[in-house]
């Protein structure tokens, strides 16, 4: 009774959670959309033209847009950064331009007024000039009506000066060789003066937005970012206010969550199953194909790691790799692009492949064309990876014009760098993946099984993964950077950090349910609750990436408030880690899943450290104001992206491989090296290099300004270079883990064949019934047939019994069986795990149809053989008569099954699931028709034994014609199908049907009702 009450409470709680989930999604996306519209309205305007005080056109709005495209074509955010978003070796171009512009104008003022440079005049004189400078730069001279921006004479002079400066840097001026090396920018990155002039126009506009005040406000379009006291870019009151709000809210919500957790009590512990439930799960043809996805994952991991080494090395040797002039063919912007993009590709591939494995596993079979779809998607994946990477190289090497580059080259936006064509291709691939997920899962949902709601949540996350990547198509070639950033973070935050997180939560819960470690209702409720908590902060938390990207103040308020909530669930991550660790020790068979579960423990650790601690230190507005674009960002990025999503991808891959290669002993030594190398290497990389560099930069940003924190002067400081080299310690350890991961995957999958069924150990084979062993692995039927052992009609005999009766050497037979059991192929099907409903359908649709289809053909051939060869081979007449008799009996036999037995079997299965009474069939108990059908099986088995003897085991004579050979070949095939047909019924379907009926009769709630 108490169990029923608990179930009822869980159902009520689940309904409330579904309502809460729907409310969070609808409300959050409503707000996200509304303020997205505000960003469209209040983004920094791109003027139609920029004019001087003398009304001379300096450049046009089209020049700005074309300049943005040119900047994108050289790598965009992979070459330095704009507004703090991008790479870290070269400067932030807006911070760099702004400070150089300020110094140029101040020196002009000082020379004009005092005949000295700015640094040489007194503090009082400097203060007066700073006020004058700030008035010049911060005054908004954009005229909305004429769509014109007017700049002062001083700014015009600064523009020409800086245009020459950047021209020298991005082309081939030898005076900039050292600086280019420090910035990892190759010579002639920009190959024409006209293109350079347009990119300078874009740099000017992007910098103008960082210092010019919004109309009616005392803050710039980017909330006074970057920090630079010279120009008056200092933190605003709202930065401090909303930072305080976020911290207070974080503490409050942590308290509420801990209270809720304690009040809810410990999770219900259920005793684990006595054996691995996944061993009973069949493996479909499409599931077999997943291993090649993991080959790609492993190879991409290695390539990504090598690119990471090269990219990191560019930070200390910007024009080559150990004096090899690699930058001429593979510049930093390309290696960094590929490094970040491949991270997304291999992690996403691991997760999506896990989905492709789970979906048919739940359904129990492949829908039509599932195998083709999985193969097609695999080919599409390879084309997208290779094609997009080649296009990006062409773009950066300036071999495409700006339009071609947008479509096929490099879009210049971090994490979504691939050209628009490749984006669309990838989106189509994601929807194909979604279709491959929906087709097997939808029928399961319709059956209303206990897992229904968990599977619905799984499908919701799958749909979101496919759908939300489309946000990457919302910007165009010349979209305002502020608007493009809004949509980019839809992809990076909502797609990668958001719905992939939900997908992972559901998959892990589902795996634990399938392993029998969690109840379905408990898992569903936990998934819904976790998703609500995460999405409450996660959706609107997108705005915390946009504080300083040309957005209105409301974005900061929302981003600071809700992004704090993203950290809240991570406070209990230690409990999750301990819970997962305990699961690995729950029972002996779970030791097989030790390493997959250990990777889940690692996910929890890095979720706390990488996403939680390292994430929160750059999360409050006041913190991000000083550290956006510094090495604190890759500190968070590496430990969260690889630490959480990468470790999870490897963990999921190991779960699937454990299921595919069930009875294969894993190389524990390699996995141990892999696990600890990856974790220790990542931790060393973070603590020895990225963290100290980030802290040093943050201190300089607060003291000097963002321009200095990213300058070559600081980044090439001897101590800073040592800190960069310190990273190699962690990198080497980490690289060992990546290589051993790849080694393990290929060693496991190439040396071993997939095991689709449980095999019986040799020690117990002698006591095993022949029929039982064939039921577990039908390929043993060939061995029994060779020794003339009946596994169908006499299948209840043990191996020892039949060996004794027939005088067969038991050990020799067991050796032959062992060869089969240890060399299983991909066509094994675990019929034992199938429901009776599914098995009856399979027999009717496969074996019955085969018999009906081939009887006319065989009768035709046998009649012809009797007419032509009967005189010389009189045995043909007897074979023909025996087959005619069998054909007649089989037609009647199959009709009886399809009209009498199978309908009641299906009804029993359905009614048990629906928990309702059953009508007593006219023939009484199922034993009655089954005993008759088994007798008929014996008769047909005897008939075919005679046919086999008469035909010399279906061997045609030397003078046989083609028809003779074809007829005997078909007879042999017909016998094989018939034996499997009989085996499935005698050994599996019939015993299970009888057992189910007995169980029903013994259950008064589900008893047969003669009045029904």
UniProtKB/TrEMBL annotation:
One of this protein's Pfam families, by short name? COX1
Q: Which UniProt keywords apply?
A: Cytoplasm, Iron, Membrane, Metal-binding, Transmembrane, Transmembrane helix
Subcellular locations according to the entry: Cytoplasm
Q: Is the Cell cycle keyword given for this protein?
A: no
InterPro entries the UniProt entry points to: Cyt_c_oxase-like_su1_sf, Cyt_C_Oxase_1, Hemerythrin-like, NorB_cytochrome_c-like, RIC_family, ScdA-like_N_sf
**BP terms from Gene Ontology:** aerobic respiration
The source's superkingdom equals Bacteria
Q: Which residues form the Hemerythrin-like domain?
A: 845-993
Identify one Gene Ontology CC term for this UniProt entry: membrane
Q: Where is the Nitric oxide reductase subunit B cytochrome c-like domain?
A: 47-226
Transmembrane residue ranges:
17-37, 239-260, 293-316, 343-363, 375-394, 421-442, 454-475, 487-513, 525-548, 554-575, 595-618, 638-661, 673-699, 725-746
From the Swiss-Prot or TrEMBL record, give the protein name: Nitric oxide reductase subunit B
The organism of origin for this protein: Arenibacter nanhaiticus
The taxonomic lineage of its organism, from the top, reads: Bacteria, Pseudomonadati, Bacteroidota, Flavobacteriia, Flavobacteriales
